[in-house]
Design a protein that fits this description.
The complex is a heterodimer of chains A (323) and B (536).
Chain A: E1 2-8, H1 14-19, H2 27-32, E2 36-40, H3 49-61, E3 68-72, E4 75-76, E5 87-88, E6 91-92, H4 93-101, E7 106-110, H5 112-116, E8 129-130, E9 134-135, E10 138-139, E11 156-158, H6 165-176, H7 192-195, H8 206-210, E12 283-284, E13 288-289, H9 298-311
Parallel strand pairs in A: 1-2, 1-3, 3-7, 7-11
Antiparallel strand pairs in A: 4-8, 5-6, 9-10, 12-13
Chain B: E1 18-26, E2 29-37, H1 43-47, H2 55-58, H3 67-82, H4 88-114, H5 129-136, H6 142-150, H7 152-162, E3 171-172, E4 175-176, H8 182-205, H9 209-213, H10 218-227, H11 229-232, H12 235-245, E5 258-260, E6 263-265, H13 278-281, E7 282-284, E8 287-290, E9 293-295, E10 302-305, E11 311-312, E12 325-326, H14 329-332, E13 343-348, E14 352-354, H15 360-367, H16 381-389, H17 393-417, E15 434-442, E16 445-454, E17 457-464, H18 466-470, H19 482-487, H20 499-507, E18 513-520, E19 526-532
Classes of the chains: A alpha/beta (323), B alpha+beta (536).
Chain lengths: 323, 536
């Protein structure tokens, strides 16, 4: 049995809701078939009150071995470093985080708030929120970049707003079935299996990206084109598997005509949602998208785009996702 | 949802957080209560100065369980500010998305959050107890497993139109971002039909949707229960029998005063959304019911107090003028403040500013009035149950579960009405300065946005969530909030395991993690404390 304790800080419960959408395995399967012993979860557990406090205290003291500590939501440090903007069981939540991360074999941050600080850490960050081991891409966060769990690992970061249910369940199953050695992490602590590809990988609009054909407007405008050029889509630069492992077994934002917000990236929300930055591609000199896929420079891009537009066949200018 | 909660002052903070509830118990009955929301995130503060459209990205993330509802009202707040045109197709898709989120929430909430308390050993002598344990126990109950897993299906429909659930932002001023295809509509229809057959009818009702909806009175429900063993043995039948056996119909009623802001628009009546034209276009109606009298709902009559909330600022402030100046709870306590929730109040003509309960019961009370236009939802059942039995934990639950059948029918009618060859979006013109108001009904009740746009950016933003209404602390006149009032009179059979407090708190389906502390009314000795599980 692998013991799991899940707490929420500056959270919306969206990752829990996403987790409940998991199928094959479902959340119930994890517990009944895969040997996960969920010691406590704020939305799922029967234990309450004194029983819950006892579980937390026993984990913190080491009396009860804690294999996996899952944290959802930002670590709220305000006001003035007190953490009192988020009180849980009579203490600042950040103090529980300190105690529980120091005893857990493995710590998993779920969602972009727990990993990077996320949306609640957007300017002016009124609660002094931060992620467990990063603050919007800068190493450090609440625990510090040198922190390691009892088993010697950094925080396993599963970003996303929310994280995809399969990203969560598959990592938990791997931890519960002795496959921890198969989880390789990238330089930001993300499981490479999910975050090496881009949202773009598998997007149904790739044919339009290839020929630099844009989607000009929403609604029926999204029956054609790629949303990277005008509508602010972050798909080509956001690391995720949203178009490889579909959402709710059905679709993805970009397939449904919504520009990717890059919600898995440390920079989310991009540009802190400043005026003029929402659903609008930020351009350099009015001609080149500012945000490029990694390792692509603007000049090479310009040359490639020019050639692609010339090469574009007629079908790339017509509607593709027709009734 | 609701889940919910940041009862925090700022609307943005009201959706998710930790709620402490303190009660006093005298002679085995709750004599007073205080609900304390203990987490602040500051969403409304973050929104100031941001892009006009930032609300459709930020506000869904207030609440992971009501995110689609947040999106729905945020889009309408912008529509009223932009004076945009919303094509009928876009209204239909928005309605479908709003409704399927609620259809997800109903079973997920019932099994995962509410019904697991029904297996509490305090009820071991109830006639249906063994069956309740077999079905409703957490993780292992037969109905729990199926119900929680099948709750995924309605939001598969959401993903077909919006890309994913939770946390899409596919509704924008002027319509929706995508344009569905034939395959999308047929798949959505098949998915929701599968959910109807496998959960709603086979597991929950034990009868066709139409048979359940033929129930117009409490007597009809009693007749339905005995009419067929399949009814009696359905999860709904078992819930009704067990709830009456253990007395859930005898406490938890609260003030009996209600607020609904309504939701779902008749497409042809709301192509040009305005604040003034909103109520007339609603399918599930808006309204206020106080001391036995129905009133029209008017957003101008909403205001908030912070006298007992961890914020600085004046009381009785309309949300367009709202502020979010949070204080350190350690300092606020000395001024009698005890919650990050503000206290929303509604100025009822002739009766003054009152705390009102939001939620499915409120919606069904309003829906029980005779309709004044053919597009309106008229539904007398729950109003009759309320008249016969009075408000309680049970009636609140019955109202919530009853809505599954009627919203399913609405979703299928909207899917059938989509005209795929027509438009889904009209590009609006961005305003420089404007005010907007948008509202909906999340699964757990009235959800509203007020936005002020100045110089082409957000000057002020205020969200009032259903849990903001329900978990409100005392107002400037020390009048308790709806949930605080609903605790009063609850019998506490075992102060070391006050499950009755859990039933009351969870019957509001608040979007929070509540920590409940029970104190002995005479000695002040802490009897026990426990966490009430809830969503958002």
């Amino acid at each position: 049995m692998t013991t799991v304790l899940w707490l929420q800080g500056g959270a919306c419960s969206g990752n829990t809701m996403s987790f409940l959408n998991a199928n094959k395995p479902t959340v119930v399967d994890l517990i009944t078939d895969f040997g996960l012993d969920v010691l406590w979860h704020p939305s799922l557990s029967v234990e309450m009150g004194k029983d819950t406090q006892q579980i937390l205290a026993d984990c913190a003291s080491g009396a009860r071995p804690l294999d996996v500590f899952v944290f959802e939501g930002s670590v709220i440090q305000g006001p003035d470093g007190s953490g009192r903007f988020d009180m849980f069981a009579e203490r600042p939540m950040k103090d529980w985080v300190t105690d529980l991360t120091s005893v857990a074999s493995i710590v998993v941050a779920i969602g972009s708030c727990a990993t990077w600080g996320g949306l609640v850490a957007a300017e002016p960050n009124p609660t002094d929120s931060t992620g467990l081991q990063y603050h919007r891409g800068t190493p450090g966060g609440y625990l510090g970049s040198d922190w390691r769990s009892a088993s010697g690992l950094p925080v396993i970061n599963i970003p996303g707003c929310p994280a995809h249910p399969d990203w969560i369940t598959q990592i938990l199953v791997a931890l519960g079935t002795g496959r921890v050695k198969d989880i390789t992490l990238d330089e930001l602590g993300r499981p490479r299996t999910f975050f090496t590809s881009f949202t773009h990988s598998g997007c149904s609009r790739n044919s339009f990206y290839e020929y630099k054909q844009d989607t000009e407007f929403f609604g029926e405008g999204t029956r054609t084109g790629c949303m990277f050029y005008e509508l602010g889509c972050k798909g080509p630069l956001a690391h995720s598997s949203c178009n490889r492992i579909l959402w709710n077994r059905q679709s993805s934002k970009t397939r449904a005509g919504m520009p990717c917000l890059g919600c898995t990236e440390p920079a989310f929300p991009f540009d802190d949602l400043a005026p003029g930055t929402v659903f609008t591609t930020q351009m350099i000199a009015g001609a080149v998208p500012r945000d490029m896929p990694p390792d692509q420079d603007h000049l090479t891009y310009l040359a490639m785009a020019g050639a692609a537009k010339v090469a574009a066949p007629q079908w790339a200018k017509d509607d593709m996702f027709v009734v | 949802m609701s889940t919910t909660i940041d009862l925090n002052v700022s609307p943005l903070g009201r959706v998710e957080g930790d709620l402490d509830v303190r009660v006093t118990i005298a002679d085995g009955v709750v004599s007073d209560a205080w609900t304390r929301a203990m987490m602040f995130r500051g969403f409304e503060t973050i929104l100031r100065g941001k892009d006009m459209r930032a609300g459709v990205i930020m506000t869904p993330r207030i609440c992971g369980i009501c995110g689609g509802s947040h999106l729905y009202k945020a889009a309408y707040a912008l529509d009223t500010a932009f004076a945009s045109h919303v094509p009928p197709n876009a209204t239909l898709v928005r309605n479908i998305a709003q409704a399927v989120e609620t259809l997800q929430s109903i079973p997920r909430y019932f099994y995962a959050l509410f019904a697991i308390d029904l297996v509490n050993p305090v009820y071991a002598k109830a006639p249906s107890y063994d069956e309740v344990v077999r079905r409703f126990s957490a993780f292992t109950g037969t109905s729990y497993q199926r119900g929680v897993v099948l709750s995924q299906e309605p939001v598969e429909v959401y993903a077909i139109f919006g890309g994913q659930w939770p946390h899409s932002s596919f509704m924008i001023p002027g319509g929706i971002m995508g344009a569905p295809t034939l395959a999308d509509v047929t798949r959505a229809t098949a998915v929701i039909d599968h959910w109807r057959a496998s959960w709603l009818e086979e597991q929950w009702l034990g009868c066709p949707v139409d048979r359940w909806l033929a129930n117009k009175t409490w007597d009809d429900v009693m007749t339905w229960l005995d009419e067929d063993p399949a009814h009696r043995d359905s999860d709904c039948g078992l819930f009704i029998r067990h709830a009456l056996d253990i007395g859930l119909d005898t406490y938890g009623g609260g003030y009996g005063n209600y607020l609904a802001t309504g939701t779902y628009f008749e497409p042809a009546l709301y192509e040009n959304p305005t604040i003034e034209g909103r109520s007339a276009a609603l399918i599930t109606r808006a309204g206020v019911y106080a001391d036995g009298v129905h009133y029209e709902f008017d957003q101008a009559r909403v205001s908030e107090d912070v006298a007992h909330s961890f914020y600085r600022g004046p009381d009785a402030v309309h949300p367009w003028d709202g502020t979010q100046d949070a204080t350190d709870p350690a300092a606020g306590r000395d001024q009698g403040k005890y919650s990050f929730g503000k206290a929303p109040r509604y100025d009822v003509p002739g009766a003054g500013r009152l705390p009102l309960e939001a939620g499915p019961l409120a919606r069904r009370v309003i829906a029980g009035q005779p309709r004044t236009a053919p597009h309106q939802d008229y539904d007398p059942l729950i109003a009759d149950v309320l008249a016969v039995k009075g408000p309680s934990v049970f009636v609140r639950q019955l109202a919530r579960m009853h809505e599954a059948a009627s919203y399913y029918r609405l979703v299928t009618s909207w899917l059938a009405a989509l005209d795929l060859g027509e438009s889904f979006y009209s590009e609006p013109v961005d305003p420089t300065s404007a005010r907007g108001y948008g509202a909906t009904e999340a699964a757990r009740g009235a959800l509203q946005d007020w936005v002020v746009i100045e110089d082409g950016k957000i000057a002020n933003y205020n969200v009032i969530t259903p849990s903001g209404w329900n978990i409100s602390p005392r107002d400037k006149d020390a009048v308790p909030g709806p949930m605080e009032r609903a605790f009063i009179g609850a019998p506490i059979r075992d102060p070391d395991d006050p499950v009755e407090l859990g039933h009351v708190a969870r019957s509001f389906d608040s979007c929070i993690v509540c920590q409940v502390h029970a104190y002995d009314g005479r000695t002040g000795r802490e009897l026990s404390s426990f966490v009430v599980n809830s969503m958002v």
